[in-house]
Amino acid sequence: MALHKYLERMRFIDSLVRKRATGNYVSLAKKLNLSKTELYNFLNEMKNEGIPIKYSKKLNSFYYTEKGKMTTKLYEREITKEEMKSIKGGNGFFNFFNFHLLWKLTK
What we know:
The chain is mainly α. It has helices at 3-19, 25-32, 36-48, 81-86, 90-106; strands at 53-56, 61-64.
């Protein structure tokens, strides 16, 4: 399977799971244009990669057992030191935290 198609399929599954709108195995397989066996294998791959997905008969949908969503970025650019310096909250937060920690310790 081409990587692009695989990632698109993963995004689509993630979207449906978060909406709890997958339907059962047969319904989801049709939405993804897969056979039931292919879907079963695809879902097993997801589980093997640590994605906490299960099926609920009550909801008639797959769902995540933990809060979260899939990310499908294969490459992420690193933030430069200059960009880090311009991000507010990082250094200031730690200075604030250290000040209050020291203040409590001196009381």
